[in-house]
Amino acid sequence: MSRTRNRKQKADMASQADRHRLYELAVQCAEAEVDFVIDTFRELRGRKPLHLREDFCGTANVCCEWVRRGARHTAVGVDLDGEVLDWGRRHRLGALTERQRSRVALLQDDVLDAQTRPTDVVLAMNFSYWLFKQRSDLLRYFRSVHNNLVDDGIFFLDAYGGYDAFREIDEEREIDDGGEGFTYIWDQDHFNPVDNNLVCHIHFAFPDGSVMERAFTYDWRLYTLPEIRDLLDEAGFSRTTVYWQGWDEDGEASGEFYPTETADADAGWICYLVAEK
């Protein structure tokens, strides 16, 4: 009898957890992302950006953070997944004031086809654009972004790499959620060096021993920075700058990013790319 109860208890935390909330806690920091976008845009363009389009927006957490930053800020989020957009409407837009909500639009559409007005900033974060495995498709997407920016608009995207990116490995990180916490597990399940096809999963493990297996799965092409920059250049962007993540005195990621043309051959790194129209 006690074994049966234990099995039920071990399933409780995973079965009751919300995968979108866990993702935001483990992967996203909307505040820091918006800080970087606003500060970098100001530095490069000498003005404050007002209008943002977030491609592959998921829960629209960044869109919501964006409109909180100013009464003139507007945001458009684009994603193909209706389920995650509905979650965002309930949990993220639902937490905004009525005026803030009026300045956010969520579109269930393909980022290649979505029709939106030209905007100051387009975002494609969390390596989401890697789902375009064919070079021609990624170039088409970058050209679409270029066309959807105002004349002095900027495209912000991120990338990761390092020699561990080409391996089939698991990485675990403890997450403080204000309660008992949980473990974020990044699982690079399959990598094919012939075409750089990369299949990854996110799992979440809990203190009671339960695990939410494959909460998210990604089937990508692992693009290198030279490939991405060449495509951005071909798409018509005038300049692309790599902003590399810095490290603190303890060897931990500092959360600060700085422009560079050289970097160490680390096992793992994350960077922003800033492409100016």
Task: Characterize the structure shown.
With 277 residues, this protein is of the alpha/beta class. α3 crosses α4. The longest helix has 16 residues, at 30-45. The protein starts with a helix and ends with a strand. It is globular, with a radius of gyration of 19 Å. It has helices at 2-16, 19-27, 30-45, 61-68, 82-91, 98-101, 135-147, 225-234; strands at residues 51-55, 74-79, 104-108, 119-124, 149-161, 170-175, 182-192, 197-205, 211-221, 239-247, 253-260, 269-276. It has an eight-stranded mixed sheet. The protein has a four-stranded antiparallel sheet with strand order 6-7-8-9.
Q: Biggest sheet, open or closed, and with what strands and sense?
A: 8 strands, mixed
Q: What characteristic shape results from the CA principal axes?
A: globular
Strand content: 35-45%
Listing every helix as H and every strand as E from the N terminus to the C terminus, the arrangement reads HHHEHEHHEEHEEEEEHEEE
Number of helices: 8
Distance between the termini: 66 Å
The level of helicity is: 25-40%
Q: What's the Cα radius of gyration?
A: 19 Å
Mean of residue pLDDT values = 93
Number of strands: 12
**What class would the helix/strand composition place it in?**
alpha/beta
Write out the strand line-up for the largest beta sheet, numbering strands in chain order: 3-2-1-4-5-12-10-11
Would you identify the regions where 5 or more consecutive residues have pLDDT less than 50? 1-6
